[in-house]
Input
Amino acid sequence: MKGMGNMMKQAQKLQSKMMKLQEELGDRTVETTAGGGMIKVVANGRNQIVSLNIEKEVVDPDDVEMLQDLVLAAVNDALTKAQEMVAGEMGKITGGFNLPGIL
Output
């Protein structure tokens, strides 16, 4: 029974560390660009887009589809990078264990 108590304490400690890290990661950001830097997207560790910058030169009223494609590419890349950042930092705490529902 003593081993079970220690395991529970360790689990609680791990949960506390993970919650603190999730809060910290919410304030960290990743940045990506598309179209040779004409589109810039910043996402945070909460998988939220916090800024989107589009240079005037890439806006062509006759080719809206290209602009849409560039924005989608940049947003998707930013969200992927944010997820990778969170997974990498969580992996440091969990030692690579897969903890369903945590990430």
Notes: DSSP finds two helices and three strands in the chain.
